[in-house]
Specification:
Layout (H helix, E strand, L loop, with lengths): L2 H12 L2 H10 L22 H10 L3 H13 L5 E6 L2 E7 L4 E6 L6 H16 L3 E6 H6 L1 H14 L23 H4 L4 H5 L2
Parallel strand pairs: 3-4
Antiparallel strand pairs: 1-2, 2-3
Length: 194
């Protein structure tokens, strides 16, 4: 050891307990943020639906993650994931087609979950949404067939915002926009007077 370092240790050894506390408090390890823990289903009573949906988007289940990747490739900008609608969180939602896709894991086999899903589907259907459910095992084993079935549902449901149409938008399909003829300014001089 060098003489400078040994002097520091000698000084530390001769200090009182109060002095040692003051000096050692200056060199404490910084507190790191706790690692984020995946939300449990019981957390929904403490978080709002929107915040819980955000956490579910950050930490999707493996079948949801796989299906989301394929949906983004095959149907770009058609689906939203973990959307809060009608007081429930939909796994995947296509607003232009009013189509809700659910991926059911093992927890959906419990009798209470079956009843909850039935009530939830009825709420979606009452508001004009089509709900399609796929078991997680099917997403793992037959993902190509699942995507083909989703494509069939998209083709069979009416597109609320066809290309070239001036009615609605992807975010708000009920909003009516003005046609190009309605947007024209009747007084041509009003345009040039600026």
């Amino acid at each position: 050891m060098s003489s400078g370092v040994s002097r520091i240790y000698q000084r530390f050894a001769t200090m009182s307990d109060a002095e040692r506390k003051v000096i050692s408090s200056r060199f404490k390890k910084p507190k790191h943020k706790k690692k984020f823990k995946k939300p449990s289903w019981r957390v929904t009573q403490y978080l709002g639906k929107t915040e819980f949906a955000r956490q579910m988007r950050l930490h999707p289940s493996p079948p949801e993650s796989i299906l989301w990747g394929f949906l983004q490739v095959r149907f770009p900008r058609v689906f939203h994931r973990q959307s809060v609608m009608v007081g429930y969180i939909a796994d995947f939602y296509a607003p232009r087609y009013r189509l809700v896709i659910e991926v059911d894991g093992a927890q959906h086999l419990a009798p209470s979950a079956v009843e909850y899903d039935r009530v939830r589907d009825a709420a979606f259907n009452k508001r004009g949404f089509t709900v399609v459910r796929f078991p997680a095992t099917r997403v793992f084993s037959e993902c190509a067939l699942v995507l083909d079935e989703i494509a069939g549902y998209l083709k069979s449901s009416p597109d609320l915002n066809p290309k070239g149409s001036h009615v609605g938008s992807e975010r708000d399909p009920g909003r009516v926009r003005a046609t190009p003829a309605e947007r024209e300014i009747p007084n041509a001089t009003a345009r040039t007077s600026r």
